[in-house]
Design goal:
Keywords: ATP-binding, Coiled coil, Nucleotide-binding, Signal. GO terms for molecular function: ATP binding; ATP-dependent protein folding chaperone. Belongs to the heat shock protein 70 family. This is Heat shock protein 70. It comes from Paramecium pentaurelia. This protein is an alpha+beta fold and about 625 residues long. The protein has 4 domains: about 120 residues, Sandwich (Substrate Binding Domain Of DNAk, Chain A, domain 1); about 170 residues, ATPase, nucleotide binding domain (Nucleotidyltransferase, domain 5), CATH 3.30.420.40; about 80 residues, ATPase, substrate binding domain, subdomain 4 (Actin, Chain A, domain 4, Alpha-Beta Complex), CATH 3.90.640.10; about 90 residues, Substrate Binding Domain Of Dnak, Chain:A, Domain 2 (Up-down Bundle), CATH 1.20.1270. The protein contains 16 helices and 30 strands. Strands 20-19-14-15-16-21-24 form a 7-stranded mixed sheet. Strands 2, 3, 4, 5, 12 and 13 form a 6-stranded mixed sheet that branches. The chain has a 5-stranded antiparallel sheet with strand order 1-25-28-29-30, with no helix packed on it. Helix 6 crosses helix 7, helix 13 runs antiparallel to helix 15 and helix 13 runs parallel beside helix 16. The longest helix is centred in the last third of the chain and has 37 residues. The N and C termini lie far apart (about 80 Å).
Length: about 625
């Protein structure tokens, strides 16, 4: 045990963020949808996927030993529920036995398992392995790889750097997990920023020079994130935060699914709880109904042959929807109240409330906000599934040499959402970094021994605001061995807490007499994969990427060959005049040449070939010819 000897605080602001030569993209890896953006000069481009959509469902499926991502994975979910993976973000950086994981697991149709308290997805069979385990990081990296490749194909160069957004409530382990996921996907995380702050940055581009205080309400598919900010053209500064974990659009969907299951049992006496295909079908329709009820008073659900020849036909009113989700609306209000109370502001000091995230479209949510902020302007027209991504891209551009030349640069001031300290004698909390400290920074404090002739001390690290560590949360510990052996109070042990640009904490302890030291990066605990494990996952991801690219090339070549062969039949020739026929031949020949030129181009990924296939199909459809 150690105790406070005397305190010397050394404040060291860490070096400025490194400026990158290469382009940096912004990625919002969301619970339900993800997007990738890039700032080109003054414009932010939301990079569409091969199907032309600006957002990609954060869904991965395994079918015939092939990974499917996004819309395609979503569309086959009903027939393949055991191998369709969603809501993965809610598991990021968590231990298997964490209460939030247990809660999330109840709503998943695929199988989770654990090894050393790490979470894995178990599939019955993959290639020659049965069963096969995939880490949560590896599955999320597949989504991230798709987004990276979209950007690479669009920009015509290999993308290596990214600014990632994360929920405001992410702890160090979850932030580190996000960095690891990006690394597996072949991306270097230049910086992590919170999702509501990214939304504010996207909004800030239209703000005037006058300083104002805004309340950012970011209600997505998996979390509710709130940030109160002081904002001006030239800077953006944290005031307070609020977060609701496992509070998002998915939770509204799950409540609807439970209701539908009850209705089916009441009317048919059929219990479908164990029928994964039926549950998946209900989940899809529940999400659609929720979205419809944001603009209409009633939604109709029709599912043909849901189970045993039973057709499910049901209607639900907005009033009933609000009644079913009363507990979620109550939690929403409590989260708003908490962030507001922490800000120490009067309501009339908050100029504007910015709504972001799909769940903020729910009328009852908007009503709660309007009733709470009677003095503030509520900004609803900024609601966009890509707003967070846009903010990440704007911030990313600031970290490039090209962005440094811009006149629209701003200073971003981040503050810790909680206090950090260590345990001293009497199970008391000695705070080293107080709540709402600006970071990056380092703070040091001197400690001594509590007993005579100690040869080592245990450094137990906590976060929280209570004077007793019993009421706070332990986030790490390590031993400092080889300290000066002397009477208590004689040794001098300097403990330094450092928080980097990403808000990740590193703790270092050194005996000033013996110079023995030890440290711990809190995020790199026993539950995070080792460097060797990450390298293996990088290799696995690269192998998957190569296989998928070859498959995409093969699909494109097959379509080209079949189209060319069918076009040359007399049946098709008779439908076309010579000009149309020559154009179609030229179209397919040009596409074939494009494949030959690009199949060995490392900058053109799977998504590029999928887009070429989609474009070719669309061009042929325009001619109203069935090839």
């Amino acid at each position: 045990m150690i105790q406070v000897f005397f305190a010397i605080f050394l404040t060291i602001t860490l070096a400025n963020q490194e400026i990158q030569d290469d382009p940096i993209i912004g990625i919002d890896l969301g619970t339900t949808y993800s997007s990738v953006c890039f700032q080109n000069n003054y414009n932010v481009e939301i990079i569409a996927n091969e199907k032309g959509f600006k957002t990609t469902p954060t869904v991965v499926a395994l079918s015939n030993d092939e990974f499917i991502v996004g819309q395609d994975a979503q569309e086959q979910a009903i027939i393949n529920p055991n191998n369709t993976f969603y809501d993965i973000k809610r598991l990021t950086g968590r231990q298997y036995y964490h209460p939030n994981v247990r809660k999330t697991q109840k709503n998943l149709l695929y199988t989770l398992t654990e090894q050393n308290n790490r979470i894995y997805i178990e599939v019955p069979k993959y290639k020659d392995e049965s069963p096969k385990l995939f880490s949560i990081d590896q599955i999320q990296a597949i989504v991230l790889t798709k987004l990276k490749n979209q950007a690479s194909s669009y920009l015509g160069q290999t993308i290596k750097n990214v600014v990632m957004t994360v929920p405001i409530g992410y702890d160090d382990s979850q932030k580190q997990a996000t960095i690891d996921i990006a690394k597996i996907a072949g991306l270097n995380v230049v910086q992590i920023i919170s999702e509501p702050k990214a939304a504010a940055i996207a909004y800030k581009k239209d703000i005037e020079e006058r300083e104002k205080i805004i309340f950012v309400f970011d209600f997505g598919g998996g979390t509710l994130d709130i940030t109160v900010l002081k904002i001006k053209k030239s800077y953006i500064e944290d005031i307070s935060h609020g977060s609701g974990n496992n509070l998002g659009g998915e939770d509204f969907d799950f409540n609807l699914v439970k209701y539908f299951i009850e209705q089916i049992k009441e009317s048919t006496n059929i219990d479908i709880m164990d029928n994964k295909n039926a549950i998946q079908a209900l989940k899809i329709e529940a999400q659609k109904a929720k979205e419809i009820l944001s603009s209409q008073k009633i939604a109709f659900i029709k599912i043909k042959n849901l189970i045993q020849g039973y057709d499910f036909n049901h209607s639900i009113t907005r009033e009933k929807f609000e009644d079913l989700n009363d507990n979620l609306f109550e939690r929403t209000l409590l989260t708003i109240q908490s962030a507001y109370d922490e800000s120490n502001l009067q309501k009339d000091e908050i100029a504007e409330v910015i709504l972001a995230g799909g769940s903020s479209r729910i009328p009852k949510v908007q009503q709660i906000i309007e009733n709470f902020f009677t003095y503030s302007k509520i900004i609803k027209d900024q609601i966009s599934d890509e707003l967070v991504c846009v903010g990440a891209a704007i911030y990313a551009n600031q970290l490039t040499k090209k962005g440094q030349e811009s006149t629209n640069r701003f200073v971003e001031i981040s503050k810790t959402p909680i206090s950090f300290g260590l345990e001293v004698e009497g199970r008391l909390m000695s705070i080293i970094i107080p709540k709402l400290s600006k970071y990056p920074l380092s703070l040091s404090k001197l400690y001594t021994t509590a007993q005579d002739y100690q040869s080592k001390v245990l450094i137990s690290i906590f976060q929280g605001e209570n004077k007793s560590v019993i009421q706070n949360t332990q986030i790490g510990e390590f031993e400092l061995i080889g300290i000066q052996v002397a009477k208590k109070w004689i040794p001098q042990i300097e403990v330094t807490f450092s928080i980097d640009f990403n808000g990740i904490l590193k703790v270092t302890a050194v005996d000033l007499e013996t110079k023995r030291s030890n440290n711990q990066i809190i995020a790199k605990n026993l539950l995070r994969p080792t460097d060797e494990e990450i390298q293996k996952q990088i290799k696995d991801n690269e192998d998957i990427e190569k296989e998928e690219k070859l498959k995409s090339i093969e699909n494109l070549k097959i379509y080209q060959n079949i189209s060319l062969k069918n076009l040359q039949t007399s049946k098709i020739k008779d439908l076309l005049n010579q000009i149309e026929y020559d154009f179609m031949i030229s179209l397919i020949t040009s596409s074939t040449h494009w494949v030959t030129m690009n199949e060995h181009n490392t900058n053109i990924k799977k998504e590029g070939f999928e887009k070429e296939l989609e474009n070719l199909k669309n061009e042929i459809k325009k001619r109203k010819v069935d090839l």
